[in-house]
Design goal:
Elements: H1 3-11, H2 13-17, H3 20-29, H4 56-65, E1 71-74, H5 81-88, E2 92-97, H6 100-110, H7 115-134, H8 136-146, H9 149-158, H10 161-175, H11 180-192, E3 204-205, E4 213-214, H12 223-239, E5 247-251, E6 264-269, H13 279-287, H14 294-301, H15 320-332, H16 334-357, E7 358-368, E8 371-373, E9 376-378, H17 380-391, E10 394-402, H18 420-425, E11 428-435
Parallel strand pairs: 1-2, 1-6, 2-5, 6-7
Antiparallel strand pairs: 3-4, 7-11, 8-9, 10-11
Bound molecules: S-adenosylmethionine.
S-adenosylmethionine (SAM) is lined by residues 49, 51-53, 76, 78-79, 81, 96-99, 102, 253-255, 270-272, 279, 304-305.
């Protein structure tokens, strides 16, 4: 259904008398490919983010399954696509994510600020940054004090001295701005010129697609020029957001959602894939400039779903099909099988929380792809659907969608060189539709 027909349906009372199961079934039977659809409207384009879903995907389910004012949750919100769509459709959006940069991105995307104030702040920041650069001594002193040894080594490895000075001048100037929301918007604009597919103003190449590698022949462009260009683009994006912010972004864990039982009208989410997406690998390039230490970021990274650090983890038993997949993998690689088992345990925690916070009779929509581990094709969607039914959900349908290869930026993986494998297999992904049972 296109947006117009969905909007028309939204107005039809008869549609809302259909049971949620029927509406969910119909939405899942519809095409979910959205090939060629415009994805960069409103604040969606503010910052790049690996494996974000097209806005039309959450939009379709929000329009077809909720009414204005109702609560839409994405417990692994990433760059906040579902939350932004919820606000644009006058629903209440809640997003949770563990990644500090993801939280910043979502927060900025949902905060409408006065364009006049932002433009003035941008000009002030550029003037101050140019002044700081002209007076080199202040910056040299700041560069000395700004980082601990490990973070300093990281920064020296990945950023040319001239780029470091320009970035620090900008960050110092932004820190002088009195309004916290304005500062956050401007920081994110800086971040958006660092975390790009090609590594932006750093020396990295392939920052989003694979393990980044340093290219000493790369001549990164001027930070201040890039910032200025990006600022105008980001200002246009934020201006088109509605004025009332009916949304909440939380830096937290999807396995411990800060929400009461039976409160959410719809969940739309896309969890990490089974052999993990290393968000921190790219995000630390900009987080170090926001005051984070490399040591702390590495600690965070181990807590993400799909991270390979196993600690004392010993696998429990799973429902039959999932168990079979883990056993098949364990014949090829024992450690990888434990990583996969840990992923399923963690996802079971997320699914239980999703079940707890959903209202009886409400739907959860999970978008996930398959993974190849040691040559074994892991059908993550089938395993997650099986685990979800153990948690209490009814499985309504699993739909398949084709990926727009040119659009969906596919990220690096933990512990693997190159992204060729993930690139090859990610031509489609699955949309799992679940229902929480009505109260008897
Ligand atoms: C595929 S991305 C979501 C992309 C999102 N749909 C979008 O459009 O931007 C998965 C997200 O799960 C987050 N994540 C991983 N482990 C998490 C956890 N334990 N709790 C909350 N979020 C987590 C990652 O930080 C990442 O942002």
């Amino acid at each position: 259904m296109d947006d117009h027909s969905l909007r028309a349906v939204e107005r039809e009372e008869a549609y809302w008398h259909l049971p949620t199961r029927e509406r969910l079934q119909a939405l899942l039977e519809d095409s979910l490919d959205f090939q060629g659809a415009k994805t960069g409207y409103a604040s969606h384009h503010l910052h790049s983010f690996a494996a974000k879903f097209p806005p039309q995907l959450p939009r379709q389910f929000i329009l077809g399954l909720t009414r204005p004012g109702e609560i839409v949750l994405d417990p692994m919100a990433g760059s906040g696509t579902a939350v932004v769509e919820a606000i644009l459709l006058q629903r209440q959006g809640i997003g949770v994510d563990m990644d500090p940069l993801a939280v910043q991105i979502s927060q900025v995307k949902i905060t409408r600020l006065s364009p006049g104030n932002l433009a003035d702040a941008g000009k002030r920041v550029l003037t101050t940054a140019h002044r700081l650069l002209a007076d080199g001594r202040t910056l040299d002193g700041l560069l000395e004090r700004n980082f601990d040894d490990r973070t300093r080594d990281f920064v020296d490895y990945w950023f040319l001295p001239i780029t470091q000075r320009e970035l620090l001048a900008l960050i110092t100037a932004i820190n002088k701005e009195p309004d916290a929301d304005v500062r956050r918007f401007l920081f994110l604009t800086v971040s958006s010129i660092i975390v790009t597919k090609s590594g932006g103003v750093s020396l990295a190449r392939d920052l989003a697609h694979s393990r980044p590698h340093r290219d000493l022949t790369k001549r990164p462009r001027s930070v201040l020029e890039q910032f200025q260009t990006r600022l105008s683009k980001n200002l246009r994006g934020i201006m088109s957001m509605p004025d009332d912010r009916n949304a909440l972004i939380v830096h937290g864990n999807a396995r411990r959602l800060p929400l009461a039982n039976d409160t959410v009208h719809l969940i739309v989410t896309s969890p990490p894939y089974a052999n993990a997406i290393d968000y921190m690998r790219a995000h630390k390039f900009s987080l170090v400039w926001m005051g984070h230490r490399i040591a702390d970021l590495s600690e965070w990274r181990a807590r993400y779903i799909g991270a390979e650090r196993l600690g004392k983890f010993s696998p429990p038993s799973f429902p039959p099909e999932t168990q079979q997949v883990i056993e098949a993998l364990s014949q090829r690689d024992e450690k990888k099988a434990r990583v996969l088992a840990k992923y399923f345990v963690e996802m079971r925690g997320v699914l239980s929380e999703m079940y707890r916070v959903l209202r009886p009779g409400a739907a959860a929509v999970i978008v996930v792809g398959t993974s190849t581990m040691r040559g074994l094709n892991v059908q993550t969607h089938l395993c997650l659907a099986e685990i979800a039914t153990k948690v209490g959900f009814d499985l309504v349908r699993i739909a398949e969608r084709r990926l727009d290869r040119d659009r969906r930026m596919m990220p690096a993986r933990f512990g693997q060189k190159g992204a060729s494998q993930i690139e090859e297999r990610m031509h489609h992904e699955y949309v799992v539709g679940l229902l929480k049972a009505e109260e008897k």
